[in-house]
């Protein structure tokens, strides 16, 4: 099976390098390369795209806003952020707007390929540099983390990998209602309020 990937970056030389890496992947087809967000959105309306490699800084719009627009239009497109921005706030904003992963541009080609395959499998994907940033997020109460039950840790790991409530329920042979209860307990015990923060907790626990 061939997967279609689009690249959105305002630096042609970066696009050229990414295309060179993608051309080495036999299961990947390059759907298109775009310098502006508006050009990509126009293209996406009439074409099937599995993954978009998205930079944050674009000449016509913010990549964070573009990610939100992409996810509003279709949840089927996986958004893998490829950026030089290593600020925790930018990472969290992209995750809150639906990004499926985040990798820094100084990552190796092997790391990029691995992250692409992870998001294609429906999992969250983070480059090594992003994992370090997320694991060094504002400290959570270590005692509260260790009080998670075995099942709660299982649910947390699957949440961090990007699985939905119904998918987690099927994997663990429990009801969606039970999954939601576990999610609420995890949020309460860790003192966080959203999935992005939960991912930071998962990173701290070595799940990413």
Question: What do you see in this structure?
Answer:
The protein is an alpha/beta fold. It has helices at residues 12-22, 37-44, 63-73, 88-96, 109-120, 128-135, 142-146, 150-160, 165-172, 176-190, 195-204; strands spanning 3-8, 28-34, 51-54, 78-83, 101-104, 125-126. Strands 2-1-3-4-5-6 form a 6-stranded parallel sheet, sandwiched between helices. Helix 8 packs across helix 11 (195-204). The protein is globular, with a radius of gyration of 17 Å. The model is unreliable at 138-143 (pLDDT under 50).
Chart the SSEs and their pairings.
Elements lengths: L2 E6 L3 H11 L5 E7 L2 H8 L6 E4 L8 H11 L4 E6 L4 H9 L4 E4 L4 H12 L4 E2 L1 H8 L6 H5 L3 H11 L4 H8 L3 H15 L4 H10 L4
Parallel strand pairs: 1-2, 1-3, 3-4, 4-5, 5-6
Helix pairs in contact: 6-11, 8-10, 8-11, 9-10
Distance between the termini: 27 Å
The strand line-up of the biggest sheet is 2-1-3-4-5-6
Fraction in helix: 40-55%
Helix and strand element order:
EHEHEHEHEHEHHHHHH
Mean pLDDT: 86
Record field, number of beta strands = 6
Q: Mind summarizing the main beta sheet?
A: 6 strands, parallel
Overall geometry comes to globular
Low-confidence parts, pLDDT < 50 over ≥5 residues?
138-143
Name the descriptors.
11 helices, 208 residues, alpha/beta
Gist of the model:
This protein is of the alpha/beta class and 208 residues long. The protein contains 11 helices and 6 strands.
